Amino acid sequence: xxxxxxxxxxxxxxxxxxxxxxxxxIEALERIGNPHQYFKSIHIAGTNGKGSVSKIxxxxxxxxxxxxxxxxxxxxxxxxxxxxxxxxxxxEDEVVYLIEKIKPFSDELTFFEYVTVMxxxxxxxxxxxxxxxxxxxxxxLDATNVVTPVVSVITKIGLDHQEFLGPDxxxxxxxKAGIIKKGVPVVSSSQEKEAEEVIIKKxxxxxxxxxxxxxxxYGRLNSxxxxxxxxxxxxxxxxxxxxxxxxxxxxxLTGFHQLENVSVALKAFMTACPSxxxxxxxxxxxxxxxxxxxxxxxxxxxxxxxxxxxSHAAEALVKSxxxxxxxxxxxxxxxxxDKDVNGFIRPFEDYAYKIIFTVPNYERALKYEELLKNLNDxxxxxxxxSFEAFKKGLLLCKNxxxxxxxxTGSTYLxxxxxxxxxxxxxxxxxxxxx
Length: 434
Description:
Layout: H1 2-12, H2 23-31, E1 40-45, H3 50-63, E2 68-71, E3 83-85, E4 88-89, H4 92-102, H5 111-125, E5 130-134, E6 151-154, H6 162-165, H7 169-176, E7 186-188, H8 193-205, E8 210-212, E9 218-225, E10 228-234, E11 246-251, H9 257-272, H10 278-286, E12 295-299, E13 302-305, H11 311-324, E14 328-333, H12 341-345, E15 354-357, H13 368-374, E16 381-382, H14 386-398, E17 403-408, H15 411-420
Parallel strand pairs: 1-5, 1-6, 2-5, 6-7, 7-8, 13-17, 14-15, 14-17, 15-16
Antiparallel strand pairs: 2-3, 3-4, 9-10, 10-11, 12-13
């Protein structure tokens, strides 16, 4: 099948590794008529929360009647998940057409750069009104940073991809803040002091209006359940509370961290689209679904999937789960080689009933021997095959009503288990980084 052959060729471009920089993408886009200039865009960078914010903004725009594309990465099971227009993934025949169209101008493009050009050209052909665009990694030199958006968004910044983005929070924040454009409004999650200072300085340099969660707008949690959160949203400063309040909004994503994510998404949406309607906001929020983010797979026994893959995300996950269920987790986890395994496991050490390490079929996956070299706490079981680890964890939970199963640590692990459970997959392991 031609689709599989061409995707395989695209897959091989990962051998080019990571080449941060915009010149190759700019040149390829120019050769096909600069498709990224044909639609409005909302550009989203950050370490944690990008996926949630992107999907919420997308659903809000859709509820208001706009034609909307969304470009995200990586995918869970299918390459086509990355490029979506109006709730429909790009078709395999359309992928073939775009790969062949771009191929004459693509010699130097890395995998992610190629897919970025594909997405922008696809969005132009679909005549969308808005594109919601996630950075792949970083921001300043990310392939997506050729757009001039109507609003830039920076979600929680943490330590991740340090070999590419810099050794500390200040360095990484400078890369993320690189998406800020002259005069373009910026909406930011609350940040560590060092990160916030970088963002404020960059926004001032670019004369870009800046709105920070907790300073300029915020949310208030009313209730949290496995089914989602009920919250109030305040788009203005605290002293202006009486002027703008949106009460008892429901988001069918759960976790304490989703309050901040949805507030950031709402502020970004309202900034990009000032003619919103409250009833359509409520409708848009209700329609949000996001696989792999505190996703409830089963209630009896309770099975939860979450793609948390760093210490900050793990801490947020555990904080929420302790409130959402009294049960103790059997944790099945995998990690990539460049992640802080000790920082990730630490929140689970005194919380989990059992921790099982496994290895998805992906070349960047952390191997058991490497885990043992780096792990401070050796009380971790090992089951090599991911689905066997899943079945072992599931059996423990079926036999003990006080337990639930949590699968986490890697997008690639969640995608692999979903494939085993019957979800259609093709090149699930197609990632950006060697």
